[in-house]
Write a structure and sequence with these properties.
Strand content: 35-45%
Distance between the termini: 26 Å
Largest sheet: 7 strands, mixed
Order of helices and strands: EEEEHEEEEEH
Radius of gyration: 14 Å
Number of helices: 2
Oligomer: single chain
């Protein structure tokens, strides 16, 4: 799984899943699955086009780790910085989107696999 930390004006874009999706109404960073034949960066670029209708420049990898949801195999989560993109992010698939200060992130009900990362991100200088 790949996800983007899209920053603009000191705020990070977070997205809320729809009620009809797995993990309904949980907050997450935009991104998704890496398809066969794609690199993680290519997958993230594609996902951001599908979810937000933007053409993103995928920046540096911020962090990666494995997480295991109960009853499922472990997944590798890879987070990338995105500070450059063409177009205005548009909500194509989510319940809602918000630009928030990183210190506010722990106040949102994030996916279980993102919680520890969110805490580290919020505490970073």
């Amino acid at each position: 799984m790949v996800a983007a930390l899209i920053e603009r004006g000191g705020r990070i874009l977070i997205c809320r899943r729809r009620l009809d999706q797995p993990h309904p109404l949980k907050w997450e960073f935009p991104g998704g699955k890496v398809e066969p034949g794609e690199s993680p960066a290519q997958a993230l670029r594609r996902e951001l086009e599908e979810e937000l209708a933007v053409r993103a420049v995928i920046g540096a990898e911020i962090e990666r780790y494995e997480f295991c949801y109960p009853g499922k195999p472990p997944i590798l989560l890879i987070f990338y910085a995105v500070t450059e993109f063409a177009g205005e992010p548009r909500n194509c698939v989510f319940e809602e989107m918000r630009w928030v200060d990183r210190r506010e992130l722990p106040h949102f009900d994030f996916l279980e696999g993102d919680i520890e990362f969110v805490k580290r991100l919020a505490a970073a200088p």
